[in-house]
Design goal:
The chain has about 210 residues and is an all-alpha fold. It is built from seven helices and two strands, in the order αααααααββ.
Length: about 210
């Protein structure tokens, strides 16, 4: 009986290990990276444009649908307010893109202004964490290029091989595997903000700036 019970445990562990290893090389990871980089400058630009009546809600919705829609694994943040229970686990993957599109469909300048203003802090934090976190990977994999000639006080020293191995494994490969999951968490927050301040009709309602259709 014990042997039978151990099989699914090992299989589950192997699936999770494989998922962690492959995550930095998936399209979804780099879509989230792209949105993390562009979201803050887009929000900055949308503030004055929304004040003159531009359809900034539609533009921001398009960016969210393009970069955080298909393939986005943050299902908890894409269900529109007022909807019933989400899709089953079996059909969740196929319905991610429509759910994301339904969650942030506001087109009007008022909704766009609210979202641009109130997402600025989140987008700035996301930009800083994303750029710094991913920059650590090449900085540590290429540690010898910036190490100088004295390795005695370096992490992993005093030998060159030990210092390079420490930086490459912990700082390089470690952050390579970590940052995609940090990106997922930040994308979930961005989607939650979009769900809160963008909605179907392009008409802001209530104190919270929620937009409903």
């Amino acid at each position: 009986m014990d042997a039978v019970r151990e099989v699914p445990v090992r299989d589950t562990a192997a699936v999770w290990v494989w998922r962690v290893v492959r995550e930095p090389f998936t399209a979804g990871t780099w879509r989230r990276f792209a949105y993390a980089v562009i979201a803050f400058p887009v929000s900055v630009v949308c503030v004055p444009l929304a004040l003159v009546g531009a359809p900034t809600g539609r533009w921001q919705r398009g960016l969210i649908r393009r970069w955080l829609g298909a393939g986005e694994g943050v299902r908890a943040g894409v269900a529109a307010r007022g909807q019933g229970p989400g899709p089953s686990a079996a059909g969740a993957r196929d319905s991610e893109a429509p759910a994301a599109e339904a969650a942030v469909p506001a087109d009007g300048p008022r909704a766009g202004l609210l979202h641009a203003l109130l997402s600025l802090p989140v987008n700035l934090l996301t930009l800083a964490v994303t750029l710094y976190g991913w920059a650590i990977v090449p900085m540590n994999l290429g540690w010898p290029l910036r190490a100088g000639s004295d390795y005695s006080h370096a992490w992993g020293g005093p030998t060159f091989a030990g210092a390079w191995a420490f930086h490459a494994v912990l700082g390089g490969l470690g952050f390579l595997l970590l940052m995609p999951w940090v990106g997922r968490g930040l994308a979930a927050v961005q989607l939650r903000v979009a769900r809160r301040f963008l909605g179907r009709g392009g008409q802001a309602q209530g104190r919270g700036g929620r937009v409903q259709g």
